[in-house]
Amino acid sequence: MNLNLKIWRQKDATSKGQMVDYPLKGVEEDMSFLEMLDVLNEQLINKGEEPIEFDHDCREGICGTCSMQINGQPHGPDRLVTVCQLHMRSFADGDTIVIEPFRASAFPVIKDLIVDRVAFDRIQQAGGFVSVNTSGNTLDANAIPIGKDIADTAFNSATCIGCGACVAACKNASAMLFTSAKVSQFALLPQGQVEATERVQNMVRQMDLEGFGNCTNTGACEVECPKGISLENIARMNREYLSATVKG
Amino acid sequence: MSGLIKSSIVRKVVMALSGLFLVFFLAQHFTINITSVIDPETFNTWSHFMGYNPLVQYLLQPILIAGVIIHFVMGFVLEIQNNKARGIKYMKYKGSANAPWVSRNMIISGAVILAFIGLHMYDFWVHEMAYKYIEGNPEDPTRYYAETVEKFEPIWRTVIYIISFALLALHLLHGFSSSFQTMGVNNKYTPAIKTFTKAFAIVIPLGFAFIAIYHHLNPITH
Ligand code: HEM
Ligand code: SF4
Ligand code: FES
Q1: pLDDT tens for residues A110-127?
Q2: Which residues of B touch A242 (CB under 8 A)?
């Protein structure tokens, strides 16, 4: 198939950047979206041009780095997939495909399609952990029995790969889905309850400091999340936060 | 306190609680207004009670005005902050792919409602304040029905009211159930809450529109 690609090019964090047209011929429908970009980049390199920079690592939907906005949606038109799992059969011959970096003030562009998502790391560092005594007599986590339904719910929250699609999709660039998944994965488990109050307060404070927007419950995040993290996580975080605030 | 208002979740909760309060007010307002179609006498009695009961006038009315102000000021603050959170916009943004129109345009439906509240206050509240406190007229428990019907004589006012009720419906379609999510309620009752939201958001504004049309079509003949 032949495609007309419109791709955001930006030399570095401080340059202005603009959309550039790239016609691409002979794309196979079995290629992944990233492989399609690889083909384009090879052509650019052969022509002596600068290849298009984009993030990728695992190429199997688990690392969460391959983030970009495709035709106005994070990770493109398909549901529950990252860009590395998106295939060209989801597009038609002759399509125009607009490819942009994720846009959020808290995710500044580094180059082309690559954005800086360290803001997520700082939210995680603010409380997304369980303090463990590592002096040598650490308790085995499995020594505490946990109901299957709770274990499953916590596991589902923990499947968040920190890709940032929730922020990218949200009209407010809110990071509530990510933060709530990270709060939930601990809040649900007995090990996480010891530090529950400070955790939710510190993570939400950091989230706000990073300049993400305010949630208005549009639900765009849960639709676009490649891991199916649901709005129930946000409701849980709000409950945790409110009870932490009341407790002081 | 200032620390609290800096929290995005606290701001959301303020939005939800003031919004829910307005929903309750709306239901109460509708209950009284619908009597104007059923039985003018009852409408007069209730309107007079609302207009002269000290608890309503000096406690509930100020709370209501504060509620409206808090709600729309916070709404505009959130909108400005949310715009800033995406400094550089997308060239292509397919909002309809993942979220309903009503949820993405609360500020538009809200702004229309605000303009409507302005007109509505001018139509009824300003008139009422002038009647009672400036002109110093005596109590007259029989005047409300005629005054109300008269308001809907001009077609332009009736039409503006109907358009505003339509936008109110859109605002409530998202806002009512959304406030439960904000308050942390997302469980087995959520489908029921969403169904109730749909019913409320359609029936109540439709009812208000019906009242306006009814009075427009049935003027008092002198
Ligand atoms: C005075 C003009 C108004 C403006 C400017 C306005 C604006 C807004 C905005 C921007 C939101 C936030 C969107 C969101 O969080 O989903 C909102 C939410 C809401 N509004 Fe309004 N609104 C107005 C009047 C009303 C009225 C009259 C009612 C009820 C009868 C109402 C009920 C609600 C509810 C229940 C919410 C949901 C809160 C939540 O999501 O937690 N609003 N409004
Ligand atoms: S919640 Fe979903 S969309 Fe958001 S960062 Fe995690 S995996 Fe990505
Ligand atoms: S490259 Fe790792 S999720 Fe796509």
Answers
A1: 999 999 999 999 999 999
A2: 9, 13, 183-184
Please answer whether residues A103 and A69 qualify as being in contact, where contact means their C-beta atoms are separated by less than 8 angstroms: yes
Report the CATH number at residue A96: 3.10.20.30
Q: Taking each helix axis from N to C terminus, what angle separates B40-52 and B144-151, rounded to the nearest 10 degrees?
A: 100
User: Token digits for A182?
Assistant: 């990270």
Average of per-residue pLDDT across B3-19:
91
User: Residue B159's domain is classified under what CATH number?
Assistant: 1.20.1300.10
Number of Cβ within a 10 Å radius of residue B47: 22
> Would you state the pLDDT for residue A163?
98
Considering the entire predicted model, what is its pTM? 0.95
Structural domain range at position A80: 3-111
Chain A, residues 118-177, CB within 8 A of chain B, namely: 169, 171-174, 176
**Are A187 and A240 spatial neighbours (Cβ–Cβ below 8 Å)?**
yes
Q: Which two tokens stand for residue A106?
A: 């808290």
- B167 vs chain A: nearest CA distance in angstroms? 17
Q: Residue B1's pLDDT is what? A: 47
Shared domain check, A61 and A145: no
Q: Ligand 1: which of B9, B71, B109, B168 to mutate, judged by most atoms within 8 Å of the beta carbon?
A: B71
Give the count of domains, chain B: 1
Distance CA B28, CA B43 (A): 13
Residue B155, domain member (yes or no): yes
Give the 3-state secondary structure of residue A103: coil
Together in a domain, A96 and A178? no
H or E stretch at A69: strand A69-70
Domain contains B162: yes
CB of A40 closer than 8 Å to CB of A24: yes
Half-sphere exposure of residue A230: CA atoms within 13 angstroms, side-chain side: 9
Quick one: closest CA in B to A223, which residue? B98
A127 and A78 share a domain? no
Same domain, A62 and A81: yes
pLDDT per 10-residue tile (average), chain A, 248 residues = 98 97 97 98 98 98 97 98 98 98 98 98 97 81 91 98 98 98 96 95 98 98 98 98 90
Regarding whether A241 and A138 lie in a shared domain, the answer is yes
